[in-house]
Amino acid sequence: MGRLIRLELENFKSYKGHQTIGPFLNFTSVIGPNGAGKSNLMDAISFVLGVKSSQLRSSQLRDLIYRGSAMQDDDDDDIDSFSTEGRANNPRRAWVMAVYQDDNGEELKFTRSITASGASEYKINNKVFTYAKYNEMLENQKILVKARNFLVFQGDVEAIASQSPKDLTKLIEQISGSLELKTEYEQLKVQQERATENSAFNFNKKRGINAEIKQYTEQKQEAERFETLLGKKAAIQVKYLLWRLFHIQKQIDRCKHEIAQHNNFIQTKQREQKNLNNELKKARQEKSEVDKQQNNLERQIRGKESEIEDKRPTLLKLEEKITYINQKLEKYEQNAVKVQKDYEEQEKNIDIMKKDLNSVNRAASKYEEEIKGGGSRSNHRNTSLNADELAHYNKNKEEANKKTVTQKQELEILNRKEKTDNESTRRLKERLDELARRRQQLIEDKEELSRHEEKVKIYVSQLLADKDSKQNELNTAVSERTRISQQERVLNGDLQDILNKLMDARVDQREIEREQKMKDLLDSLKRVFEGVHGRVLDLCKTTQRKYDAAISIILGRNMEAIIVGTEKIGLECIQYIREQRLGHATFIPLDTIVAKPVNDKYRSILKGARLAIDVIDYPRELERALQYACGNALVCDSLDIAKTICYEKNEEVKAVTLDGTIIHKSGLITGGRSGIEAGARKFQDSDFEAMTHKRDFLMSQLNELNRIKRKGNVEEQMKGEIAGLQSKLNLFRDDLNDTKRKLAMIDDELQVIQNEIDQIRPKFQKADSSLSILKSRISTLEGIIYQIEDEVFEDFCQEIGVANIHEYEQRQLKMTQEAAEMRMKFAIQQSRLQNSLKFGEEHLKETADRLTKLQESITQARDNLVGYKEERDQILRDNKRISEEIGKLQKNMNLIKNKLSEKTEIFNNVKKELGRLTKEIDKISKEVVKREDVIKRCKSDQFSIFRKCKLEEIELPLREGSLDDIPIEDSHLQDDVYEMDIDDEPGPSRRPSASFEPHESDWPIIVDYKVLTDQQRNDPSSDIEKEFQAELDATAAEIDKMAPNLKAIERLDIVEQRLQETEKEFDTARKEAKTAKEKFNIVKQKRYRRFYEAYSHIAENIDRIYKDLTKSRNFPLGGTAYLSLEDTEEPYLHGVKYHAMPPMKRFRDMEQLSGGEKTMAALAMLFAIHSYQPSPFFVLDEVDAALDNANVGKIATYIREHADENFQFVVISLKSTLYEKAQALVGIYRDQEINSSKTLTLQVDKYEE
Fold first, then answer.
1. Residue 595: which residues within 8 A CB-CB, separation 6 or more?
2. What is the pTM of this model?
3. 475-484, 714-723, 775-784: which range is least confident on average?
């Protein structure tokens, strides 16, 4: 892959004149002080690659030309603006040239210049090119300027990590090239939608024309059939009647044979049905017994689980008490050991003090004995003076006192001062010693408290970890409970829907059964009687659906009424329904019904009001029946319109609004939407069975959820445990705070003691020094006095045989003082030892009492601990026993469930088989009834044909008998014709096999069918009947002067021509739609493929790169980073989310990461994008600004490892941790003399060892 060799520029921003920067190696670092122009080097690289000036911190290109003014630093270490010194010295042109070496080793010189007019000029190897050609050449070298994935400006790195999912999608589109297809994609999508709409429009137009053609074709066929069959009525009437009679008799024989077969089949199936009923009863009993066993086991399991749950709070409290007592016992035992140790030390000290006291007493007694026995005298001669010597001594003493009175007075003063100073010095010394002891004691206490603090911190950390663990378990339990609750709500909702559907299904089944019976009744009537048109509901429909509710209300009970041609037909239908016990029905005869004429004024009475007869479509021959049913009722768009007509205009007319509100002729208003409007939902048996199974499945799931919920409230237990941990944590925290407070107090006291020592020590030193001087002065005075006294007592000393008077006086005085001092010392030691012994014995007693109380507390705590443990162990044993019982019950439950499933499956299979058999029997029974109806209809048709031939004198070919034997009227049809008491039962399950057999004996006629052809004998289809009937209808139409629509053929030709034109337009539109769709799909797939290839590559590499950037010795695995699509079908239309989790950090949004973490995530993203379509070089401008030294080192290591001949890095940085690993350094500094940025290049890798 190519590489950037060097950069040459002239008069660009802060760089004056022509300067060469480079060469750039695999890893080149650009360094320099703030304000030197480092970022202007980044702008120069961006400029020569064609980046707009607005992105180079300039409003226009001229701002990029060197201005020769004092450069100003900004916060980004850039030199962005210049103050004008003089226009004469300012250049008007500037250019930047990037010397690039391609894969073949050839140099390409990309140059971009700023002309005097402020425009850009692009050159490659000194040849001028357009920007498009220039950019194409760069893209050929894999330098995608639009994507700018290899240029990272200062401050942009965090924005890359924090960019929105849409922006990240756009970046990936730019990298992958799918953005180039966006315009074409949108245009083709619009073209596809337009072509589809045009195709749909032409298709609807074609369908409308086909409807017209169909209508005119039928009219044409009718006219042709009228003309063709006009002359055939007389010739085919007899043949038609013979054909009908032949096939009627044939159908009667066939139906009788089928009835016999069906009856045999029904008997066989009824026997099977009886056996299945017995099996069903047995299976139901077995299933009920197993179900009872399951319910009993469930109750037992719930009882056992309830026992465990009831004991759970007690067990939790016992665990807390045991933990508390263990801690308390440990504390008691530690205190007991410490107190025992103190007791032993105190006892040992008391023994020592007693021995010392005895030793002192013996020494004092011995000393007194020595004094009394004269043992304290010296070996010198007895210095006791006689009277002369004593007089001589006193005389000399007076003389000496006179001579030394001044010195003695001064000595007395100095002695008093020395005594005072000595006392002060002693007190200062004692205070210093006391402070030193106190400081040492505090230091020892501080060490002990510090050890205690560390121990408490460990306990607190452990408790926090346990609490977090329990909290996580609680959160999991809460989540599980929430999930179960949500699932329970969903299941309850689904169950409610299923129950409602089952309820509707049962209602619908009854409605369907009633509707089916009505349809069967109507079909039977149409087969048996001619002139039965159908129900009003089936014969008319509204022009718009919005009128359905209003028309339903207006028609009311007449919706189910059956329209017949004559009153006679209606009476015959009533008689037939009564005989067959088929229910009841209302009939509207067209010949006798009295319908009020429509009042035309209501057609235009008010806008928004229409006659009901005008908003329905119906056959014209049924107009009288529909006028009778609708009358002058009005359909109004709103209640206000209806009120205006009925109340303000005082029209006595029935007005119905679209929402079902009725204003009657009397003025009474009734409201509510009619239930007739709502179409009943129809459910098949399979749907009903599926819903039943789904209901059972949902109920079983709800039972399972309830069973899980009954296992115990784990949350309460965990909350109790967390509360116990929190209470312990609070205790330890209070202890920790108290320890910290004590440590702080000790530190304060140590500081106070040190301050006091610092204050006292100089005083002590000063007092000690003064005392030494004073003692020296006293010694001097004493020497003077001793010298004078020696001169006075010289003769006396010689007389008593001593060296000097002072030796005598000191010896006598010393003996007296020594005796007094020894007695004082003995008294002080005895008093001190006695007091210490008394205090020690009292303290020993108190320690013994404390030790006794601690032993009692330890014993009580151990007794309580044993009791609690026994109680806990008993509960655990009970729980274990109950759990084992529950396990056994669960095993039995599973066996019972399996058994119940088997029994349920057997029961359902038997029930299903029974239902199938019952349906089969019902189906065959209906077939039998149908065959009997067919026979009755056939007998009736025979009688009608014979009677018609007799009345119309049609000569039927007969082999035996005569038509004169046929009665004119059928007497049994006339019985109770007008009696309307119709049986309303839904129909019996068993019907009598009614027939016209009694009448057959009255017809001694044998018809001759010789004139019928073999085809007519073998073909009973309706085609021949339609042919005969069409010919007869055509003859009747000609006789009645009923001319057909003769314009139908002409109109048909015109419409067919229009159809041909429309078909051409439709084919063209369909082809255009297909072409547009194919083009759109091609572009769509191409765009998706480009985008997804880039996304997949980046997503696969980003985690590895992020781990390489974030791993360390402490975190060798590094962090985690991944991408996710908001839409996997068309990802380029939505966002791409970027998630990064630094090492040992929980998942957080990118916005919540620190600046350094965002930088690492952004660099991982940039390197991953770069790995998809790597550019030859990568330029980074101070991306390490927010990073610490550790992360900067990771970035430097990563760059150094990946920088090679195929991947070149140019990094602008101020941190030595990064640029010390570069192969080359480009130093940028500011030359103050020429007011310009200058560069120095150093190839560092030459100096590596």
1. 624, 625, 627, 628, 631
2. 0.35
3. 714-723
